[in-house]
Design brief:
It is a single chain. The protein has 15 helices and no strands. By secondary structure, it is mostly helical. Helix 10 packs across helix 14 and helix 11 crosses helix 13. The two termini are 37 Å apart.
Length: 307
């Protein structure tokens, strides 16, 4: 069988919780271009060092599951187990905890790493953790082809809705047996993510961020590193565990951010664009936030009754 490189963590490591918890889709370039430039302080304050301390206006709307993840995971596990049983398979959810967002592994802001201590200790890898790829290589998270070998093709097709190398199916239990509510499903659930995407696109093209990024790049060049933006080093394929080269690059990255205040400028600009979009879309966002309560209520009932 041809090896399928994409990783599919089992339920406890990464659970489908719907649009409220998923990565935001890309924004509409046209809509992003139409946003007026926000007014920011002449000297924006430095951004927080850790990602968990960064709070943006649209966060409450793209993080609707925050604080309820355990209940949602339990409810979805019950639904998936029942779905698989109906298809003739015994499904055992993995123990939870592997993929939950925590203070330590919160997603990095758009400007990337900004914690000098973390940079010196673990480079671009999450402190105390590691990437999903590394976990798979250590055998802690199975790849899809490994699941086929262990459970059979029919089982994997029932769970995911497809088999490698085809990834077009969407009728597997992981995607269909999820907690929902009619009042939430009929709304534009991807709206918060699109707005985040629009704000991110406009921020990256904002003249103040472009200038600060250029200053950061020049600073990095003085230390012998050739990068045009802070996205490049963190997306580079680094060895595991972090090499001296990665640690040196990450430390220089953060030091140059402090020298140029790229994170502070970036965060101030991004906050302004997000606030504008929040105000423009306030009624629809409030509808989504209110309707999400019905999803939570359904999840609590599923957990209480066992499905």
């Amino acid at each position: 069988m041809k090896r399928f490189s994409v990783l599919f963590p089992v339920l406890g490591a990464l659970l489908v919780l719907g649009a409220a918890c998923s990565d935001p889709p890309a924004g509409d370039p046209g809509a992003a271009a139409a946003l007026p430039e926000p007014v920011i302080p002449a000297n924006p304050p430095p951004a927080p060092a850790t990602a968990a301390e960064v709070h943006l206006p649209l966060d409450p709307y793209v993080g609707l599951a925050k604080g309820h993840r355990e209940t949602l995971e339990k409810a979805n596990a019950i639904l998936i187990t029942k779905c698989m049983r109906d298809k003739g398979f015994a499904y055992q959810p993995a123990d939870g905890g592997g993929g939950r967002a925590t203070e330590a592994n919160a997603p990095l802001p758009d400007y990337g790493l900004n914690d000098l201590k973390a940079a010196r200790e673990s480079g671009y890898s999450p402190p105390g953790g590691g990437s999903i790829q590394a976990a798979a290589e250590q055998g802690r998270i199975p790849t899809l082809d490994k699941l086929v070998q262990e459970h059979g093709a029919a089982y994997v097709k029932a769970l995911y809705g497809f088999l490698p190398p085809d990834t077009s199916g969407s009728d597997g239990c992981l995607s269909t047996a999820v907690v929902s509510a009619p009042e939430y499903d009929r709304l534009d659930r991807e709206l918060p993510g699109r707005l985040v995407g629009q704000a991110s696109e406009r921020t990256q093209g904002d003249g103040r961020v472009v200038a600060a990024t250029g200053a950061w790049s020049a600073c990095m060049a003085e230390s012998g590193f050739s990068y045009k933006s802070p996205v490049e080093p963190r997306r580079q394929k680094w060895p595991s565990p972090p090499s001296p080269a990665e640690l040196a690059t990450a430390a220089a990255d953060v030091n140059c951010k402090a020298r140029t205040n790229l994170p502070g400028i970036w965060l101030a600009v991004q906050t302004g664009y997000q606030q504008t979009l929040l105000e423009q879309n306030a009624p629809a966002l409030k509808q989504l936030q209110d309707a999400w309560q019905a999803v939570l209520k359904n999840a609590e009932q599923i957990v209480a009754t066992g499905g």
